[in-house]
Write a structure and sequence with these properties.
three-stranded antiparallel beta sheet, globular, Aminopeptidase, alpha+beta, 8 helices, 214 residues
Length: 214
């Protein structure tokens, strides 16, 4: 049994916070770092059996991985690469977002209305993972799950009003609250690439919000 100093079992949050002491986050910028992230991504997809075809030893999409509004984030535990997530920041209707392949009728109007990542946290999880997003982040389905290019699983589009739910999420799961140094390591000090010529100043404003979200 995992016991705290006083002899009582540690809570889930306590155990995660202890783990985070061994965790480091950073953006994959160098070619070798990006290759490692793409290989890990491919391994995860292949192990879950959701790929319709094999892409060799890496899973890379230049349209989204090389987009000016994309970050390839990496997570290390005890110095070993343990996870990677690509973050695409949608600023306007010109944004390059993977979800627009399948959910353009849902996401397009919100982008035109400038309801961007600072307003909503949007996810496109497998249908069987929707319950986790609902329970943890208060996300609601924006449409029924659909077929998605390249994968065998049905993919849903879910969204959560981040500004409304943030206090509840961080109160229940304090390990989701990031430190300024962690945000700067991933997004830079008030820096954000634009999704296109239109909306550049808005993108720069959002970068400051991302760097300062507490």
């Amino acid at each position: 049994m995992d016991l705290a100093t006083g002899g009582a079992p540690r809570s889930f949050s306590d155990r995660v916070l202890r783990l985070l002491e061994r965790v480091e986050h950073r953006v994959a910028k160098a070619p070798a770092e990006r290759e490692a992230a793409f290989r890990l991504r491919s391994e995860a997809y292949q192990k879950n059996g959701v790929l319709q075809r094999s892409d060799g030893d890496r899973l890379y999409d230049p349209r989204y991985d090389d987009a000016p509004n994309a970050w390839i984030t990496t997570t290390f535990i005890d110095g070993e690469l343990a996870g990677t997530v690509r973050v695409n920041l949608g600023v306007d209707e010109y944004a390059i977002l993977p979800g627009l392949q399948v959910f353009s009728d849902i996401l397009g109007p919100k982008l035109v209305a400038r309801q961007v990542i600072a307003d909503f946290a949007i996810g496109t999880p497998r249908a069987e993972h929707m319950a986790f997003y609902r329970r943890t982040f208060g996300a609601t389905p924006w449409c029924p799950p659909r077929d998605y290019p390249g994968v065998t699983a049905k993919i849903a589009c879910v969204g959560a009003d981040y500004r409304f739910g943030r206090i509840m999420i961080e109160s229940r799961y304090p390990f989701y609250k990031s430190e300024p140094s962690e945000r700067e390591a991933l997004f830079g000090p008030g820096r954000c690439p634009s999704s296109g010529a239109v909306g550049r100043s808005r993108a720069e404003d959002l970068s400051a919000e991302l760097a300062n979200l507490g």
